[in-house]
């Protein structure tokens, strides 16, 4: 056999041996990878399509990972998914009382007795978990008479549920406007127009709640102050709700490292001018818009026809009316003017306009707002 043929045979043999070795290694790697995947926990996407299973903890409480529980208030009640399914009749649409950010809210009575509001967050793994953490890390640590109280939670599989005190009168949005056709539950209360005194009580309540949040050692910004996120109790005291977009910051006047968020009409103009970070002054602007909305009974997110026939938005319309000193004309027509002092109306409008200033540096702090409201309304 000549040397050339020997070289060809040797090369061919080496090629087949090397190919066989690579094939064996590849098979071993695939087998090992498959075993690892089978040993991992079920993915959130797959878990959402599985039936709810009873938690494995011996106490019967909801299971929760160590990473998630690290920042939770240990006094908050753990409620099992089994109990929540029972008391909400498997989250029946008949019990829906609201629609929070990323989740529906149900009215239910826990086995321990209290009537509560149960918010089942979106099954989307990212949105639901993000809101869950936001509410637990902010609302779960604070107590104030004008901030809704969180009472408990459930976390099992991909499901995240938050449990709050039940606020009897529902949202401010429902009282400012006729939303009866939008409500999908039976016990819709006959809602009379809110008086001036009641509206001022609500304004002061929201202001005090925000003042408290902004002046904590680690300040909290809400980022979504609006009428539908203000709940009213039996005495029409205001309770700020829905902290799914809330964030903690180290200094009340510093920027927070997070993307801007909120609701059109309430969002401060700097968010549209390139500012990609939120501050407490964003909350002040949203409060100013809400305050003006409460006085005028006009939605800030919906344009309406001005006197010249052009569409105009709330803040633009109010600024034009203020230039002409037409304050009383802006007051909601459903409010009785009999005992209403124009001087007080003017001062209240001025606070709202200052809070809604286009330049964030010219807005007052919520502490200053509360002081001014106390001076005017006492």
From TrEMBL:
Domain named Protein kinase: residues: 91-377
This protein's GO CC annotations: membrane
SMART domains referenced in this protein's UniProt entry, alphabetically: S_TKc (SM00220)
Region feature (Disordered): 38-62
GO MF annotation list: ATP binding; protein serine/threonine kinase activity
Keywords on record: ATP-binding, Glycoprotein, Kinase, Membrane, Nucleotide-binding, Receptor, Serine/threonine-protein kinase, Signal, Transferase, Transmembrane, Transmembrane helix
EC number: 2.7.11.1
Protein name (record): non-specific serine/threonine protein kinase
Source species: Buddleja alternifolia
């Amino acid at each position: 056999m000549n040397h050339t043929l020997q070289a060809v045979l040797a090369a061919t043999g080496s090629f087949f041996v090397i190919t066989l070795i690579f094939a064996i290694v590849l098979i071993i790697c695939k087998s090992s990878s498959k075993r690892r995947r089978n040993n991992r926990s079920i993915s959130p996407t797959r878990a959402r399509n599985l039936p709810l299973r009873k938690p494995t903890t011996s106490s019967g409480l909801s299971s929760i990972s160590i990473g998630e529980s690290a920042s939770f208030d240990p006094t908050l009640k753990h409620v099992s998914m089994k109990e929540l399914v029972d008391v909400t009749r498997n989250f029946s649409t008949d019990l829906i009382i609201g629609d929070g950010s990323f989740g529906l809210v149900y009215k239910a009575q826990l086995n321990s007795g209290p009537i509560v509001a149960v918010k089942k967050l979106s099954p989307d793994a990212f949105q639901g978990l993000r809101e869950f953490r936001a509410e637990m890390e902010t609302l779960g640590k604070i107590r104030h008479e004008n901030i809704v109280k969180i009472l408990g939670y459930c976390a099992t599989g991909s499901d995240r549920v938050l449990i709050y005190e039940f606020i009897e009168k529902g949202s401010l949005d429902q009282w400012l406007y006729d939303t009866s056709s939008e409500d999908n539950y039976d016990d819709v209360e006959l809602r009379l127009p809110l008086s001036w005194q009641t509206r001022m009580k609500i304004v002061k309540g929201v202001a005090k709640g925000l003042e408290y949040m902004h002046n904590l050692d680690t300040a909290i910004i809400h980022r979504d102050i609006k009428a539908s996120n203000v709940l009213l109790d039996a005495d029409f005291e205001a309770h700020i709700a829905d902290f799914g977009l809330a964030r903690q910051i180290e200094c009340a006047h510093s920027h927070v490292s997070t993307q801007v968020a909120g609701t059109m009409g309430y969002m401060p103009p700097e968010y549209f001018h390139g500012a990609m970070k939120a501050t407490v002054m964003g909350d002040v602007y949203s409060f100013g818009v809400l305050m003006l909305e409460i006085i005028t009974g006009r939605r800030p997110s919906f344009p309406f026809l001005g006197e010249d026939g052009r569409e105009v938005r709330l803040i633009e319309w109010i600024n034009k009316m203020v230039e002409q000193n037409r304050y009383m004309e802006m007051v909601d027509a459903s409010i009785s003017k009999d005992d209403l002092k124009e001087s007080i109306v003017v001062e209240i409008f001025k606070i709202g306009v200052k809070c809604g200033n286009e330049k964030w540096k010219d807005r007052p702090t919520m502490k200053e707002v509360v002081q001014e409201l106390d001076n005017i309304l006492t």
